[in-house]
Amino acid sequence: MNLEGKVAIVTGAAAMLGSAIVRAFVQGGAQVFAVDVDSVRGEALQAELGPRCRFVACDIASDTALDALVADVLASAGRIDFLVNNAVVYGDKGLEASRGEWLQALDVNLVSGAMLLQKTADALAAQGGAVVNMGSVGGKFGAAGRALYPAAKAAILQLTRNQAASLAPRRVRVNSVSPGWTWSDALSRMAGGDRAHADRVAAPMHPLGRAGDTDDVAQVVLFLCSDAARFVTGADIPVDGGFSMLGPDQGRSARDWFGG
Ligand SMILES: NC(=O)c1ccc[n+]([C@@H]2O[C@H](COP(=O)([O-])OP(=O)(O)OC[C@H]3O[C@@H](n4cnc5c(N)ncnc54)[C@H](O)[C@@H]3O)[C@@H](O)[C@H]2O)c1
Predict the structure, then answer these.
(1) What is the whole-number distance in angstroms between the Cα of residue 49 and the centre of ligand 1?
(2) What is the residue range of 46's domain?
(3) CA distance 108 to 112
(4) Does residue 29 lie in a domain region?
(5) pLDDT recorded at residue 180
(6) How would DSSP label each residue in 53-83?
């Protein structure tokens, strides 16, 4: 995939999944602006990847910071071809969530990406660019005790369709990617750093038999930004090893469950 000369903004770039997306763009030849509030890991990523990766410390929940980010990218690179809205806060609650907790979760996980697209839309339209919003299997199914994160992730799929419809006349494509369990900071923490353990726990829910790799997700993000996906917009691509194709019966008929 040749992305030479193209410019991408990736949010939430400092953690494992975001940095895999940045790496994939850099390997494809793009110039990447890696956006995060975590300066320590952001600077480390920039040092690892060299001149094609510029870390920008930026809180996406601040409009002033987003304005400065877009001005910075346009001043130094002169164009924006791709936007990947990947940043997230995982703090999650269900029925007991306060109004403040709702607003904070929706602000980072949903509204900030919408604001960043608003601020980059003209630049993206000038290039016939592409946007990828990050969904999740967590936004597709009910889960007791959870609401903030899943509601934001479900809303992202609808927002993607609305953004795609609004921007199609300007030749900007907007799609989402919905990962299953991915070997990320969160999963690694839960599995005590033991990848084989994570795969064993993930296998019954992911028919392909393991948790996802960050690069599994990154390659689909890259595909959606590439010319190979030039006629794809308003779509959600699950990158979940089959998690979302199965219902609660795990693909087995009633006859199977009755043992015959
Ligand atoms: N990890 C998984 O298994 C999984 C599964 C499905 C979907 N996803 C999606 O993938 C994306 C990345 O998830 P992750 O697991 O890497 O999350 P993570 O928490 O490991 O990383 C999120 C990154 O976003 C940054 N961030 C948070 N608030 C920010 C803000 N206000 N401004 C700028 N940066 C901010 C954090 O510093 C962090 O680097 C998310 O959209 C998530 O919903 C992940």
Answers:
(1) 20
(2) 7-239
(3) 5
(4) yes
(5) 98
(6) EEEEE--TT-HHHHHHHHHHHHHHHS---EE
Whichever domain contains 202, its CATH number is 3.40.50.720
Taking only the tens place, the pLDDT of each residue in 127-180 is 999 999 999 999 999 999 999 999 999 999 999 999 999 999 999 999 999 999
Closest ligand 1 atom to residue 38 Cα is 37
Q: What is the DSSP letter of 236?
A: E
Q: Indicate which residues carry an active-site annotation.
A: 149
Tell whether 103 is covered by a domain.
Answer: yes
Sequence length of the chain is 260
Q: What is the pLDDT of residue 71?
A: 98
Q: Which of 10, 21, 66, 184 to mutate to test the pocket of ligand 1 (most atoms within 8 A of CB)?
A: 184
HSE (side-chain half, CA atoms, 13 Å) at 94: 6
Residue 6 in this model has a pLDDT that exceeds 80: yes
Note whether residue 2 is domain-resident.
Answer: no
> Please, which residues have CB within 8 angstroms of residue 164's CB and are 6 or more apart in sequence?
173, 174, 175, 233, 234
Q: CA-CA distance, 93 to 74, in Å (whole number)?
A: 38
Q: Which is the closest atom of ligand 1 to the Cα of 134?
A: 41
In a domain, 254, yes or no: no
Sole residue written with tokens 């799929």? 157
Q: For residue range 182-216, list pLDDT tens digits in order.
A: 999 999 999 999 999 999 999 999 999 999 999 99
Helix axis angle for 112-127 and 63-77, nearest 10°, is 20
pLDDT given at position 250: 85
The residues that bridge with 35 in the sheet, in sequence order, are 11, 56
Bridge pairing between strands 130-134 and 82-85: parallel
The number of distinct structural domains making up the chain is 1
Is the per-residue pLDDT at 260 higher than 80? no
